[in-house]
Write a structure and sequence with these properties.
The complex is a heterodimer of chains A (290) and B (334).
Chain A: H1 4-36, E1 38-39, E2 49-50, H2 54-61, H3 63-94, H4 101-109, H5 116-127, H6 134-141, H7 149-152, H8 154-179, H9 183-191, H10 196-223, H11 228-233, H12 245-254, H13 259-284
Antiparallel strand pairs in A: 1-2
Chain B: E1 4-13, E2 16-26, E3 31-35, H1 42-50, E4 57-62, E5 65-66, E6 77-80, H2 92-102, H3 107-120, H4 136-148, E7 154-158, H5 166-183, E8 186-191, H6 194-200, E9 203-208, E10 211-216, H7 218-223, H8 228-233, E11 240-243, E12 254-257, E13 262-265, E14 271-280, E15 284-290, E16 296-302, E17 312-317, E18 323-325
Parallel strand pairs in B: 3-8, 3-9, 6-7, 7-8
Antiparallel strand pairs in B: 1-2, 1-4, 4-5, 9-10, 11-12, 12-18, 13-17, 14-15, 14-17, 15-16
Helix pairs in contact in B: 2-3, 2-4, 3-4
Classes of the chains: A mainly alpha (290), B alpha+beta (334).
Amino acid sequence: MATQQTQVLGRALLTPAVALLFIWMIVPLAMTIYFSTLHYSLLDSETWSFVGLENFRYFLTDPAFLTALQNTLVLVGSVLAITILLGTPLALLLDQQVIGRSIVRLMVIAPFFVMPTVSALVWKNLLMHPVSGLFAWLATLVGATPIDWFNDAPLLAVILIVAWQWLPFATLILLTALQSQDEEQKEAAEMDGASALSTFIYLTLPHLARPITVVILIETIFLLTVFAEIFVTTGGGPGLQTTNIAFLIYSQALIQYDVGNASAGGLVAVVIANIVAFFLVRIVGRNLEA
Amino acid sequence: MGQITLQGVRKSFGPVNIIKDANLDIDNGSFVVFVGPSGCGKTTLLRLIAGLEDVTGGQILIDGKNVVDVPPAKRGLSMVFQSYALYPHMSVRGNIAFGLKMAGLPRPDIDRKVEAAAATLNLTPYLDRKPRELSGGQRQRVAIGRAIVREPKAFLFDEPLSNLDAALRVQMRLEVTKLQKQLGTTAVYVTHDQVEAMTMADKIVVLNAGNIEQYGSPLELYERPANLFVAGFIGSPKMNFVPGEAVGELAVATLGVRPEHLKIGKEGEGWPGTVSVAEHLGSDTFLYVDTGKLGMLTARCIGEFSLKAGDRVWLSPDPARLHRFDKDGAVIGT
């Protein structure tokens, strides 16, 4: 952008894209805000009326909301913990020289490419099914009673499925980070007499601080909106046991046909996401500063 | 004590032989430089001594004990890496103390030793800084501090000055040499820079394609190169080589004469030629003289020399300073 002319030209050429993106964002947001102030049910779409903030009061005081919020946070937290605590050792293993390393890596990364609905169905019907599932078969082999995952531990079951999907992502990011670690530093540590464990604690972990932060931030964005896995496996139940905020909004809109209430819920979800993001950046974001 | 002996050391990576039968005696307290063109195996040889690579064959003795199966940390050596390899998230203090901490020394001892090492290297004001807040020369000194604090039997240096600018390199060269003499610790130093080798070394090992070509003091190598390779590698500008039969020495395959041992005359005696380029450096003048059948010869004259391209000159070699080589490149006579 050296001259005035290129600057003006650059802005002129960027304008359509920026305008389109802006409209793309602002129109749904404006409509959501508009709908959130209406009493508007699809069951009775002829009569709608302005109700102010009534929808927000209704949504926030609904006992389902607190349960869903709690479920959301438990889901996000558990999946983050599982993917990072398992992803780090997995990345360390994949960083080693082994025969068929490229195949192994491909296999490890594969779950990430499976569609959430498909993997949820596979887990539901082939692995966790209390009668014909693999886990049930393994349990009967050792004489234990099979667990009926989606009745006895539904949230745990959903957490396992989602963690399985996101583990490859964490592993992949951490693996790339490991490969960028300076070999000479590790050799210097070796000359300094550091054991493998000390090298990991004093060199590798600090080196991984930044990629772990990236994993936490990106995963959080997507885990706040987990939907397909819940929809396919438990449908939010039993009761509200696996209903998170995203699923709650869905059920308001398309099970109870209450568009106004669902819009209010959507806006609340936006605020929650921002609160979570704020705290995340406060806690781990300083790792991103160079 | 730090006596290092290599006996028949070999190293191959797959079918490629990097080091072929290296035999070497490094005396306690001496400063030995490995020098050679890139890919000659000098760094590999250093890493073999350090224990960062396993030998394919042969023995490495440190103070008479074979250490080929001893892990790096137990060999009592410390190494300064080309990239310095400082631990980026630790302070200077943490970097220097790391080895002692791993050795399980008590805290007060570590502090005392780190302070002492930092004082030796003028690093005391920077102890609490991170490596990224230091200049190149300071980082270099931290890397050296990390090496000396462990009081090793020998220091291993892997091209430690190659990332510094020219002026700093000259200064650090002096500092490293002074420090080594002061501590009296054996040092093995790898470089591709023959000026570094000549100025720092007690003894130089010239390596080429995995072979030790010659082992001797800097002046020995300069005055009595054992073969064509050493003759061509040591000295700048390079030694001139002319075929023996072209100058009437039929028993000699190649005759070598250094640029500084060619006398230049404006008439009469010696090998006639035409100046094609004259480089005036102020203190020296390098003349590139086209002598026809003898090829392009380089002559070095002290001071300013008023010759320019196209002038006709006669070059006469100092007969006492001629180097004669047989057809295998080995020196004839002594």
